[in-house]
Amino acid sequence: MNAKRSDKIATGILYAISGIIVLILASLLLYILVRGVPHISWEFLTQPSKAYQVGGGIGIQLFNSFYLLFITMLISFPISLGAGIYLSEYAQKNWVTDVIRTSIEILSSLPSVVVGLFGFLVFVIQFEYGFSILSGALALTFFNLPLLTRNVEESLQAVHYTQREAGLALGLSRWETVTRIVVPEATPGILTGVILSSGRIFGEAAALIYTAGQSAPALDFSNWNPLSVSSPISIFRQAETLAVHIWKINTEGTMPDGAAVSAGASAVLIIAVLLFNFGARAAGKRLYKKMTSA
């Protein structure tokens, strides 16, 4: 009787703690959304920002955030996919594998500001890329690699070993078995990890302050020369992202309507991250159902 009562008390305490945590997080999200959503409009999402004037938007910062995300994933995903396949399918138990896994754990535990300072010293100064999208994307690649690599490895390991044996029994080589059977079967989990890591990158600020810069030059969407700093596709131009813009507004105080712009930008950022998270769940479930029903 006492054991049952103790179990009920312990269970109730755990539920209460979980409820308090969920309530705190929900309150923060609702506070940001309630303050920011009224300031969101089409003009706010498309117009460039303004300093010392009222009525600026976040159009360039929003474009920079998505473009920087695209360049980062273009660099980091192939590396993470290759590393995940090696660790899951080919790596032996030796010191090389231990060093790789230790390096991944160390990278995953680094604060983003440390990654930003590393990117500043290496890519901005040493490689002379300057404050640019390229510097920011390379820094975020180091920030993103541990999460993506671990996700790919776990998704591949979740595939049952009998599917590997079936591929080998049909006469496929080990590489063909991995690429034609294991990787397609693990695609839903890999896709979920990619979308979740995209949300993490989209909301990153500290690493980009020191690498991608804190200015958002006007973009000429009629100019598609990748070497021109006014071209939207140039990777050598400075690119203030949405998260950096929010930090800049609240630290510099040069906008008369800075509180409203910051609230609106914060709401847009929260909504985008929520869409990434919900989109990851929906895409993973839909792809899994499609593959299992095929």
Automatic annotation (TrEMBL):
<keyword id="KW-0813">Transport</keyword>
<keyword id="KW-0472">Membrane</keyword>
<keyword id="KW-1003">Cell membrane</keyword>
<dbReference type="InterPro" id="IPR005672">
    <property type="entry name" value="Phosphate_PstA"/>
</dbReference>
<dbReference type="GO" id="GO:0035435">
    <property type="term" value="P:phosphate ion transmembrane transport"/>
</dbReference>
<feature type="transmembrane region" description="Helical">
    <location>
        <begin position="12"/>
        <end position="34"/>
    </location>
</feature>
<dbReference type="GO" id="GO:0005886">
    <property type="term" value="C:plasma membrane"/>
</dbReference>
<feature type="domain" description="ABC transmembrane type-1">
    <location>
        <begin position="62"/>
        <end position="280"/>
    </location>
</feature>
<feature type="transmembrane region" description="Helical">
    <location>
        <begin position="258"/>
        <end position="280"/>
    </location>
</feature>
<dbReference type="InterPro" id="IPR000515">
    <property type="entry name" value="MetI-like"/>
</dbReference>
<dbReference type="Pfam" id="PF00528">
    <property type="entry name" value="BPD_transp_1"/>
</dbReference>
<feature type="transmembrane region" description="Helical">
    <location>
        <begin position="66"/>
        <end position="87"/>
    </location>
</feature>
<keyword id="KW-0812">Transmembrane</keyword>
<feature type="transmembrane region" description="Helical">
    <location>
        <begin position="99"/>
        <end position="123"/>
    </location>
</feature>
<comment type="similarity">
    <text>Belongs to the binding-protein-dependent transport system permease family. CysTW subfamily.</text>
</comment>
<protein>
    <recommendedName>
        <fullName>Phosphate transport system permease protein PstA</fullName>
    </recommendedName>
</protein>
<dbReference type="GO" id="GO:0005315">
    <property type="term" value="F:phosphate transmembrane transporter activity"/>
</dbReference>
<keyword id="KW-1133">Transmembrane helix</keyword>
<dbReference type="InterPro" id="IPR035906">
    <property type="entry name" value="MetI-like_sf"/>
</dbReference>
